[in-house]
Amino acid sequence: MQDDMMTISINNWEKHNQNRRKGYRYFTLENRFFEDSKITKLCPIDVLLFIKCLSIAAELNTNQIQIHAGMMPKRWRIAAQSLLNRCMTLQSFQLVTIENGPTKGIERKGKERKRIERKGSSDGVTNLENQDLNKNIWTAYEQSYLLRYGIKPVRNAKVNANISQLGKRVGGDAVELVKFFLQHNDSFYLKTSHNISFCLRDCESLYTQFKRNTPITTAMVRSFEKHSAEAERQRLIDSLWDEEKNVVE
């Protein structure tokens, strides 16, 4: 069937397709279409073939189409050679133009289709890699959670989304990161039973702590802030004392 395929272009396509929406179910014929000097010289089957070409082109929203005998209604009983002969007749009346082989536009579509197929194949590999990473992240989180709390964590759509986002933001290190997270003794994480959503929320900060192997807890931050405030207060006292001594002298 592919060998019988013909590529034809509808001449003066614009006047038959003023509405350019793809899939639009109508195309335009002039009121005096059948009185046109060219149409009147065609036999009925040629007229039907031309209208069929117009309908296919309208459906595809393009003046350039590919047709073969199998696309014609069965009641027409038209063979491939007969179809070619009738298309040649339409061309002789300058209603259509028959192309020799695929046109550049069709070649571009073929290349685009192959590109999409290759991309789809690449995306398939990427999706499999992401699925494997997500599975490993969840396994590490589940086992670490079970070890710390004695029960398995809840898993639902939201948890799955958090796992997926964690893998995208941290990459392969997310597997070890969730283990580090479950060992973290920050008071907030303890209060929330190390909910995975907070691992995702703080993943960049946790990543830095994980790489430095230095967990930072809320208590440590408060202690640092307290000592910093005391040091600043002492610095101000010393500064005022020095100023007072200078005045006295």
Q: Would you spell out the secondary-structure blueprint of this structure?
A:
Elements: E1 6-10, H1 44-60, E2 64-67, H2 80-92, E3 96-99, H3 104-149, H4 157-170, H5 174-183, H6 187-191, H7 196-201, H8 203-212, H9 218-248
Antiparallel strand pairs: 1-2, 1-3
Helix pairs in contact: 1-2, 3-4, 3-5, 5-8
If strands are numbered along the chain, what order do they take across the biggest sheet?
A: 2-1-3
Structural class: mainly alpha
The whole-number mean of residue pLDDT values reads 80
State the oligomer: single chain
The percentage helix is 55-70%
Low-confidence regions: 101-107
Percent in strands: 5-15%
Radius of gyration in whole Å, from Cα?
37 Å
What is the count of structural domains? 2
Count of beta strands:
3
Summed up, the helix count is 9
Name the helix and strand elements from N-terminus to C-terminus, one letter apiece: EHEHEHHHHHHH
Q: Can you give keywords for this protein?
A:
single chain; 249 residues; mainly alpha; 2 domains; three-stranded antiparallel β-sheet; elongated
Account of the 3D structure:
The chain is mainly alpha-helical. It has two domains: about 100 residues, no CATH class; about 110 residues, no CATH class. Helix 1 crosses helix 2 and helix 3 crosses helix 4. The termini are far apart. About 5% of the residues have low confidence.
